[in-house]
Amino acid sequence: GAEPTYDYIIVGGGTSGLVVANRLSEDRNTNVLVIEAGGSVYNNPNVTDTTGYGKAFGTDIDWAYQTVDQEYAGNYSQTVRAGKALGGTSTINGMVYLRAQNAQIDAWETVGNEGWNWKNLIPYYRKGEQFQGDDFSWLEGSGVAYDPAYHGFDGPLKVGWSESQLNDGLAQKLNTTYQNMPVPVPYNIDPNGGQMIGYTLYPKTVDSKLNIREDAARAYYYPYKSRTNLHVWLNTNANKITWKAGDDATADGVEVTLANGTTTVVKASREVILAAGALKSPALLELSGIGNPDVLSKYGIDTKVNLPTVGENLQDQMNNGLAYDAKSNYSGVADYVAYPSASQLFSNATAVGAKLLRKLPAYAAQVASANGNVTKAADIERFFKIQWDLIFKSHIPVAEILLEPSGTTLDTEYWGSVPFSRGNVHISSADPTATAAIDPKYFMLDFDLQAQVQAARFIRQLFNTEPFAAMAGAETKPGLSTVSATADDQGWSPFIKNNFRSNFHPISTAAMMPKEIGGVVDTSLKVYGTSNIRVVDASVIPFQVCGHLQSTVYAVAERAADIIKGRI
Ligand code: FAD
Asked: What mean pLDDT is reported for the chain?
């Protein structure tokens, strides 16, 4: 029969995939197909509820990827959540809208990604954004504030605050507490302008008027679904890319398994664009014959493109929390975040920095050796030095501290912003429905533990500082009997390693970098050695960012669309 042919096939109708699908289908002569493994969640209350974070976990819209047992973190597996739905992980995430420190995006260019810097990315953060900042007077008392200069107001993605916002002046008390800390953390009216250090309230991807979650499908797909050139196949699994005959590694389609179990090939005349997420896109490359021949041959896959760094450079963060009894009862959503610099987190930051600098060559050698020298120690060492400069010279945030009051508990969440440990993800079977072997190597390098410990001590200090000290009762997690007030790093280690979880921010598994230093895609996000395959999701982000990922994923995808359209 006459199979339809599409100009572009986008694999994954998630956060990044729907941005690119929307922008490419603006040209009505361009036929776009999105292949999405999940279904529609438009009316799923676990998605739409602005107070429902976590409700979708463990349901059928959560991939709930399992890592391999984590050698440096108690030898057990971790769950890395990701959305399986039209809208992808934006349908289950925490909705936090926080970008990055400007110098971090500039570092992408420093490693050789010409044109990828903060100045060039800012227009794309703004292009996607529809900041609902006209009037937050209904939130008086909540502490929310913003600087309009940093935001976009005409994009598809609604960003702002919801009426569920806690509205009782706690924000101001927390601010006073931060100002009373031994090393104060200044107030920052709006961290989305490239300078993140400070205490602030962050906006979220919510529809403020309807008080529902704003996700990629609501922003970029549903309002445009009548476009006759924009096609979406739901409940359809992409198995691998198919190749045009010849040696030049040109994709001509995607093999898919439809909801009814039928396997078929759908044709693309121009490009195949991977947007399946950082833990899936590299696996799809490997299943298609792009990767390390040693990995592919184990599963009987012929190497079409020899690109050993596919799946390497995996970076995630480690999330943990302390909890305290509260002397009041809190109800509502709170968006309080503090981003301390190294000198605000560590009382002896200069000494900490000097010691870390001496360790970088050994760290780099350890990462390279753990992956069989697929990535080169000299390159990793250079990346680590860039990261060191970001921390100790550009003063990026070194940790993120969240306060989440709930009922009679004052909960906190925290993580080191830029862990050094790097792992990988590779297929463990030729079966396209099998989960890959995911190995983030949490806590492989000891600075990552040191940052976690110091963030925990910082939270203890916060709860020992007025006015917070008077508002909080006992520390219930971990509690002083579990980790004493004077515990050293080793004293904290068991609590941290037994209680942390993935921060669900995996990146860099198809990193945008020059090929010689381990890149998988070039600055046009095209996979090296192929003529028409791109990756546009979190896999391409070369270094971890201090904000949360989605805003940067949206911005990268917006810029990717302009690149694909030939506008850049
Ligand atoms: P995704 O949005 O995951 O899209 C990938 C899509 O591909 C999915 O729809 C998936 O179903 C589909 N897919 C995968 N494999 C196949 C296949 N073989 N065939 C067809 N389709 C396939 N970031 C923030 O900024 N703020 C937050 O508050 C925040 N909280 C988070 C909380 C959680 C629980 C999680 C998991 C993440 C959170 N993040 C947050 C991170 C952020 O949401 C993600 O980094 C981002 O959404 C990733 O976008 P993506 O396009 O790379 O992938």
From this structure: 96
- Find the 150 Cα to ligand 1 centroid distance in Å: 25
Contact residues of ligand 1, CB 6 A cut-off: 11-17, 35-38, 81-85, 88-90, 92-96, 237-238, 275-278, 280, 504-505, 537-538, 548-551, 553
Task: Tell whether the model's pLDDT for residue 140 goes beyond 80.
Answer: no
Mutate to test the pocket of ligand 1, among 9, 10, 15, 335 (most ligand atoms within 8 A of CB): 15
Closest residue by Cα to atom 34, ligand 1, is 93
Q: Note the pLDDT of residue 3.
A: 64
Helices (DSSP H) in 464-548: which residue ranges? Answer: 468-471, 489-499
- List own/partner pairs for 370-378 with CB under 8 A and 24 or more apart: 370/423, 370/441, 370/444, 371/312, 371/424, 372/294, 374/292, 374/308, 374/309, 374/312, 374/518, 375/309, 375/312, 375/313, 375/422, 375/518, 376/517, 376/518
Q: Residue 480 and residue 453: Cα distance in Å, rounded?
A: 14
195 alpha carbon – ligand 1 mean position (Å) = 25
- Told to judge if 231 belongs to the known catalytic residues of this protein, a careful annotator would answer no
DSSP 125: H
Per-residue pLDDT tens over the stretch 501-549:
999 999 999 999 999 999 999 999 999 999 999 999 999 999 999 999 9
Q: Could you report the per-residue pLDDT of 295-314, keeping only the tens digit for each?
A: 999 999 999 999 999 999 99
Closest CA to 82 of 503, 409, 529: 503
Q: What is the pLDDT of residue 167?
A: 82
Dmax (CA) of the chain: 74
Annotated active-site residue in 151, 231, 426, 548: 548
Alpha-carbon distances, residue 118 vs 123, 131, 134, 235, 552 (angstroms): 9, 20, 26, 37, 11
pLDDT tens for 365-423 read 999 999 999 999 999 999 999 999 999 999 999 999 999 999 999 999 999 999 999 99
Cα of 376 from ligand 1 centre, angstroms: 29
Domain ranges of the chain: 15-225+314-564
Determine the pLDDT at residue 99: 98
Q: Which atom belonging to ligand 1 lies closest to the Cα atom of 97?
A: 25
At the top level of CATH, the class of 15-225+314-564 is alpha beta
- Helices first, then strands: H and E counts in the chain: 15, 24
CA distance 312 to 291: 10
Dist. CA 415 → ligand 1 center (Å): 19
Angle at the Cα of 159 from the Cα atoms of 157 and 164, rounded to 5 degrees: 130
Complex confidence, ipTM: 1.00
CA-nearest residue, atom 32 of ligand 1 = 93
